[in-house]
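Input chain follows. Return structure tokens only.
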Amino acid sequence: MPTLYDLTEQEHDALMVLAEHAGDMDQPEVIEALEVLDQVTEQIELKAEAYCRLINEMQSRGEARKHEAQRMRALSETDINAANALKARMLWFLESSGKKKLEAGNFRVSVARNGGPQPIEVDEDSVPGEYLVKTVVESIDTKKIRELLSSGEQLEFASIVERGTHVRIK
């Protein structure tokens, strides 16, 4: 079966023949072009239906994979949380029993100090101003720009563009 591109080209060629001969039914090229146009139209409808079926299948499969990924992510988080809880229980045991190391079959367990900068505790309500840092986040006010452009004002850094298109399948 020809591709959608091939069908589009055949349809275009047939329409060009019709335009050249102004639809004169006495011309054999016109009759042939009309026959080709009928065949191409039917093939385009069949191709479009196949596209729609494929699109629906891919969307369904994508949604199923997305839900499966969410399910797997939740299971992963559960496993990680359970492993962290077991590690905390092991740390509690070692610290409460005064042990620094433990040989456990194929594993060696030890209590280690955390790395990185020394942790600090801060009472946020009583910190003097000299220790505060102001953070400024700038963002573009697209709503304001859109309103100005819609009212007819010209801005050299922005312009209204045509909305895009998409295919809706029902």
